[in-house]
Amino acid sequence: MASPYPSNPAGAMGDFKSKVELRIKCEDLAKMDVVSKADPICLVELEKGGTFMEIGRTEMIKNSSNPEFVIGIAMDYCFEELQHLKFAVWDIDDSSKALSQGGGEIIGSTEANLGQIVANKSMTQPLVRGDKDKKYGQITVVAEEVSEKDEEIRMTFAATHLDKKDFFGKSDPYLVFSRQNADGSFTAVHKTEIVKNTLDPDWQPIVLSTRTLANGDDERTIEIACFDWDQDSADDLIGNCTTTVGALRGASLPLHFDLKNAKKAAKKKSYNNSGVLHLRAFEALRLYSFLDYVSAGCEINFVVGIDFTGSNGNPSQPTSLHYIAPNQMNQYMQALWAVGSVCEQYDSDKLFPAFGFGAKIPPNQQFSDIFPLTFNYENPYVQGIQGVHQAYQQCLPQVALWGPTNAAPIITRVSEMAREAQKMSPVKHYFVLLLLTDGVLTDMEATKEIIIESSKLPMSIIIVGVGNADFHDMNVLDADDGKLRCRIGVAERDIVQFVPFRDFAQGTPAHLAKAVLAEVPQQVVEYMRQKKQKPAGM
User: Fold this and answer.
1) Nearest to 392 by CA among 471, 446, 312
2) Can you tell me the distance from the alpha carbon of 256 to that of 484, in angstroms, rounded to the nearest whole number?
3) What is the pLDDT of residues 176-227, one digit of tens each?
4) Pairing of strands 351-357, 371-372
5) Could you report the per-residue pLDDT of 500-537, keeping only the tens digit for each?
6) Half-sphere exposure of 95 toward its Cβ, with a 13 Å CA cutoff?
7) How many CB atoms lie within 10 A of CB 460?
8) Cis before residue 363, ω within 30 degrees of 0?
9) Whole-angstrom Cα distance, residue 387 to residue 379?
10) pLDDT of res. 7
C-alpha cells in the first residue's frame, strides 16, 4: 500500500542544509626529511558508503612545521546526517605526481564528525599514523556557516619604511589577512605574494570576496599582518594592524595604518611603528550567481566531440568500445545521454554541433582530425541529444577508425565559436565541449596550449575517458592542484574536468552528469567576473 505521507514533505527536518567552511592549521608537524621541514598540504575526505572520498584540499605551504592554510574547504552541512570526515596531512615530495603515486608522504591524519566541529565551532586533535604513540603534530579545524551575503572586493596595498629583518639584505615582505573568530582568535584567509628585498613593497591587487574576508560581516575585525619571508627559518612578524570591511569601504583614500609589533613596543618606550601600510585602492562589486546569468539569458551551448580512432576496436565486434548491442547503449552513448540531457535544458534552440575526430571519412576515405557527424561542414548542428545519438549511429558505419588521438583541432574549433560569440555579446553564450576519448592524447602539448588560450574565452571542456586505458596523464589537463601551465604560459582559469567513465559504469547517468558538470556553474561565474560582465539587464 502506498504511504499516506509525502516522500519529502515541505519544511521537514531532512530539508535543512547549509553551507559551512572549514579553515585548517597545524602545529609541530613532524619532519619527514632529514635536512628540512615538511611541505605540508591537507586533504579533507568525507565517508560515503564505508569509503572516504576527497572533497577538497588546501594549498601546499613550503618548509613549515606550523602551517596555517588560507584555502578553506566549503561543504554542505546536513543536520540529519552523520558526516564523518578525515583530515590527512601530507608532505609534498613531487608536485607533478599524485600523492598516492609517489608525490608525497603521509605525515598523519585524524577523523571527526562535522556536527561535532560545527557544535563546538572548532576542533583540535593530534595527527596519528600506525604507531599511535609517536607524535606527528596536531591539527585545528575551525567551522563556520557561510553567509549568503557576498561581494567581490578589489584592494591595492603598499607599505613604506618597514623594519629591516635580514642581516645581509632588507626584508622580503608579504601580507596575511585573517578574520576574527567568535572566541577572539584569528583565522588566516589570504596571503599575498612575497616582494623580495625591499622595505617599501607594492603588492599586486588583491581580489577577495567579502564572504572569504569577513563572512559577509562589515563589522567583523580583520587583522592584516606583515611578515618577512625566510627561506631557512620561520618567517618573522614585522607588524600588524586591524580594521573592518566597513572601515575600508567608507574611507577616503589613500588610507594609512601603523604596523605595530607588540614585542618591539614592549622593549622600547619611544617605539612608533614598524612601518606604515597604505590602502591605495578599494572597490566592492556585487557578486552574481550562475542562476543570475542564466535567468538573464546566458545560454549553455553544448558541443560534442567523439573519438573515432582505431584503438576503439572494430565497431562490428562486441569487444569494440563503439559496438552497439541490440537495445543497449555503449559507453559513448551513455556518456552523451547523461551529460547532454542536462546541458540541453539551458539551450533554447537545442541545436548542438556534433563532431568526430581521428577517422577516415567519405567520400574518399581521407583522414580527418575533425569532421561533423553529419558530414555537412556548412551545418554541423543536430537537434537535441536525441539528434546527437542518431547522427552518431548513422556516422559510425561510414567511417574507418584510424588515428592518432588529437584533441587540439576540435578544441580549436570550439574556441573559434566561443571567440565569435564573445565579440557579439560577452554574456549571451557559454560553450561546453564534451570530449569523449578512449585513450591518452597524442598531441598533449598542443592540447595544453589551446586549452590555455581557451581559458580566456567563454568555454569549458569536459573530457570523459571511455574504456580501460591508463588515463593518468589526462589528470594533468584537469589541473585541480593549480592552473594548467606549458611553454606559452599559464591558464587564466581552470576550464577542464576529466573523469574516467569506468568510475561511474555501475551508477546512474545522474552520477556521471553530476561529477562532470559540477564545476561548470562556477567556471561560468569565474569567467564573467574576470571579464567584469554583469548579467544582461542588471
Assistant:
1) 312
2) 38
3) 999 999 889 999 999 999 999 999 999 999 999 999 999 989 999 999 999 9
4) antiparallel
5) 999 888 877 888 888 888 889 989 999 998 888 989 87
6) 13
7) 29
8) yes
9) 14
10) 32
| Strands 351-357 and 299-307, bridge-based pairing | parallel
**Pick from 220, 287, 186, 243: which is nearest to 538 by CA?**
287
Q: Is 467 left (phi over 0), alpha (psi -120 to 50) or beta?
A: left
**Best mean pLDDT range from 31-40, 45-54, 339-348:** 45-54
Half-sphere exposure (Cβ direction) of 206: Cα atoms closer than 13 Å: 26
DSSP, collapsed to helix, strand or coil, labels residue 106 as: strand
Residues with Cβ within 8 Å of residue 327, at least 6 apart in sequence: none
Q: Using CB atoms within 10 Å of the CB of residue 355, give its burial: 0 to 12 exposed, 13 to 18 middle, 19+ buried.
A: buried
Residues contacting 224, CB < 8 A, separation 6+:
157, 175, 176, 177, 240, 241, 242, 243, 257, 277
Q: For cell 562486441, what's the residue?
A: 318
The amino acid present at 79, given as its one-letter code, is F
Which residues, listed in sequence order, are joined to residue 125 by a DSSP beta bridge? 139
Residue among 277, 191, 204, 203 at smallest CA distance from 238: 277
- HEC string of 359-404 equals EEECCCCEEECCEECCCCCCCCEEEHHHHHHHHHHHHHHHCEEECC
In the block, residue with C-alpha cell 572533497: 55
Looking at this protein, which amino acid is placed at residue 538?
A: M
Cell of 92: 609534498
DSSP collapsed to 3 states, 441-485: CCCHHHHHHHHHHHCCCCEEEEEEECCCCCCHHHHHHHCCCCCCE
Closest by alpha carbon to 501, among 534, 468, 535, 459?
468
Separation between Cα atoms, residue 479 and residue 96, nearest integer Å:
10
Beta bridge partners of 372: 355
Question: Can you tell me whether residue 425 is helix, strand or coil?
Answer: coil
Q: Which residues pair with 51 in a beta bridge?
A: 48
Cis peptide preceding 409, ω within 30 of 0: no
